[in-house]
Amino acid sequence: MTAIDRRGLLLRLLALATAGGSALPLRAQSLDTLRILSGFPAGGTVDVIARRVADKLRGGVAKVTLVENKPGAGGRLAVDELRRSLNDGTTLLITPAAMLTLYPHIYSKLSYTMDDVTPVCGVTSVVFGLAVGPAVPPTVKTLKEFITWAKLNPTLSNYGSPGAGSPPHLLGALLEKETGADLRHVPYRGTVPGVQDLLGGQVTSFVGPIGDYLPHVKTGKLRVLATSGAKRSRFLPDVPTFTETGFKALEQSEWYGFFLPGKAAPELVQRLAAAIRAAMTAPEMADALAQYGLEVAVTSPAELAKAMKDEGAAWGPVIKRVGFTPES
Question: What domains appear along the chain, each with residue ranges and CATH number?
Answer without folding.
Answer: 10-125+254-322 (3.40.190.150), 127-250 (3.40.190.10)
